[in-house]
Design a protein that fits this description.
Chain lengths: ~180, ~180
Amino acid sequence: MKFCSQCGHSVSQKIPEGDNRARFVCTHCNTIHYQNPRIIAGCLALHEDQVLLCKRSIEPRLGKWTLPAGFLENGETTEEGALREMREEANANATILDIYTMFSLPHISQVYMFFRAQLTDLNFSPGHESKDVRLFREDEIPWDDLAFPVIYDTLKFYMEDRVNNHFPVRTRDIRYKPSSHK
Amino acid sequence: MKFCSQCGHSVSQKIPEGDNRARFVCTHCNTIHYQNPRIIAGCLALHEDQVLLCKRSIEPRLGKWTLPAGFLENGETTEEGALREMREEANANATILDIYTMFSLPHISQVYMFFRAQLTDLNFSPGHESKDVRLFREDEIPWDDLAFPVIYDTLKFYMEDRVNNHFPVRTRDIRYKPSSHK
């Protein structure tokens, strides 16, 4: 951030009065520009003993398999965001069962949350960010070709919890050290 | 938002290619400025049969009782944010037990989450946003003087669930219609 989105003058980093961390503050109108983590909401969509995965048609992790998920938008509930991603990435209709996994990724200021969901029909197809959408039984899941650690963990938790048909909310932090070269 | 935070030129609202909703886009450098919901993380801090509440010394809801909570900061996990708010608002130390309640407030693009936490000592005191900090037994809770619906709901859920000593994650949407006058 270099300029104030309210008045267009330059910003500088400083600690506002009563605050304890540096913020971007406008040198002209003194507006404080807070920056906060973003939520990514998605679905673990189920049909009988199968889960729905999408093959990514975009970077990053093009060609890898993922659960439908994306940035929560202003004006949405978390469940609405998760179901919208189901429609956008898989043209799929589902109903939310419950919140299931939540991950903090502090190095990139993201919080992921996945909801267990029940597919309401099998009329799914690739959306504009997917090149394939399929249902997978446990022994068919492409464990070595999953897009992100949060996908791997959510599927692993689910396969463990399914044995007891009990799905407590699972939380985990995923931290990466900054790489030493860009 | 009126100006681009990257180059200082004016922005206009338009739907970027490949997107399906209006964003602020710079008329000069074409940077897309996404705006997303923010997370508020807090603690339901426990000591024996009591819960910790803070009396607000700031607006909104000055003088009302609240659970320590605040905006999650970049670089934090949700648990770290919740514990930081405990320190800032109540000078209190606690350990997280588990995620307990989550609320979507789509009309203001906020997601609240409260963690059950155990106080590690009783050396708490008002922080700079509080004028009092106290432990309350169930029959002492000032139900009519709580700051926000999310506080009321979290305390009600807790008192219900405590009977069975079972604390499933509770989720709820809280929606307000825009008021007809400002």
